[in-house]
What does this fold into?
Amino acid sequence: MDLNGLSKEFGFAACFVFTTEPFVYYEQRLRDGALHHAATELTASVANDAPWANAILLLIYPYRPFRNEVPVSGNYPASNASYHAAGKLMRKLNEIGIKTERAEVPVRELLTRNGAGISLKNGLTYLAGFGTRYSAQALFCALPEPEYTPAQPLQEARCCGCHACEHICPSSAISDEGYDFKACARAYMGGDPMEPWVMDAMTCILGCELCQKVCPYNHGIEPLEDVPDAFRLEEILGGNIKPVLEIVGKNLNKQGRVIQHACVIAAKQGRTDLIPMIERWLTDEREAVRVAAEYALEKLRA
It folds into this structure.
């Protein structure tokens, strides 16, 4: 079966077929407390969680960022689109008799241990041809005759020594020692009330793109010219959230996350014209939204 060709029918640029060996590096990092809580519930042993599977399909969905002046992360629209595309591929494989399920596995280890990806010190993984601008979806699969993607010689992290990501990181989460999620503002933008230092570091709605924007391995990836009207601050702060969630996924509005971020970005842009819209969120039942609105108004009225 041409899995690579089939995956392209669903919008993916590549499909790797990897073995199901245990994720020993992930388990070690768990023991060391080096992982963000969002990554602590991944599958370490496929033999335990999906003993029927003889392969992990890793699907690569590349994306282009928005223009520099557009304060929206390009990652989440791609993540949402790739999630649904993977679901369609999964259903197709099951229909033709190949058992397939979604897999929550350590993608970075999956790529690096097979020599397909290279770890960078900003915590991201470089893929030739895609830079770090891609969303990856994994599926457990029981293939009749698995043809595994040939493993390449393992390579060490090969940051070129430009230090660009270190210099631009707004919370100093990147150093010569690598990436420290505990210092990364993005790790604290998940929906709970944000501390002032996190909002001070925020550069876009739903995340931070700075280290990717300056990374030499992403040079040549042209930004998108068209930006959906759904991302206009006026739309979000006016409460018109549904169009945004259709693009990025409904799960990303925990505790009014999108509204929180829009309030902060409005302050960063000096949008005093949006003060009346932000004021309405001061009485919202969600504490995290109120905190972001208060932060924004303090900055805009200063």
